[in-house]
Amino acid sequence: MSALARVEREPIPPGTLDMLILKILSAPRRELHGFEIADAIQRRSRDVLQVEEGSLYPALQRMLVKGWIAGEWSKTPENRRARYYRLTAAGRRQLEREIASYERTARAIALIMQPAFA
Question: FRET label pair with 16: which of 40, 45, 76, 108, CA 20 to 30 Å apart?
């Protein structure tokens, strides 16, 4: 693909945003603020997936309430106030459940998409 080729963006599949956020935060000693999480998802997906603020922050708040992540206010390198998030033990267990469910679903879809043999 040339440097000028545009990457076609796709919406984040329903029900997968929490899993993607938890996965990004699952690296050892990983604490990121919201913009860094969104940026990591975009970079890791090679610019196919983009998280909008209107989806990201409600998801982070929901995960804080559920205890899957913890958040602490601090300063960014640019001296801006930001909440840094990290994965909790409960979040790690939830990530494992979500990955297992995603893999089962992806396998089932792959079975349907295969050519039918009569």
Answer: 76
Q: What is the largest CA-CA distance in the chain?
A: 65
- What is d(CA 91, CA 94) in angstroms, rounded to the nearest whole number? 5
Query: Do the Cβ atoms of 31 and 110 come closer than 8 Å?
Result: no
Which tokens belong to 108? 């089932």
Query: Which residues are paired to 73 by β-bridges?
Result: 83
The pLDDT profile of the chain, 118 residues, written as one tens digit per residue, is 445 456 788 888 888 999 999 999 999 888 999 999 999 999 999 999 999 989 999 999 999 999 999 999 999 889 999 999 999 999 999 999 999 999 999 999 999 999 876 5
Rounded (10°) angle between helices 17-25 and 89-113: 130
Task: Determine if the pTM surpasses 0.85.
Answer: yes
Residue 39 is inside which H or E element, if any? helix 34-44
Computed on alpha carbons and rounded to an integer, the radius of gyration of the chain in Å comes to 17
Q: 3-state DSSP call for residue 114?
A: coil
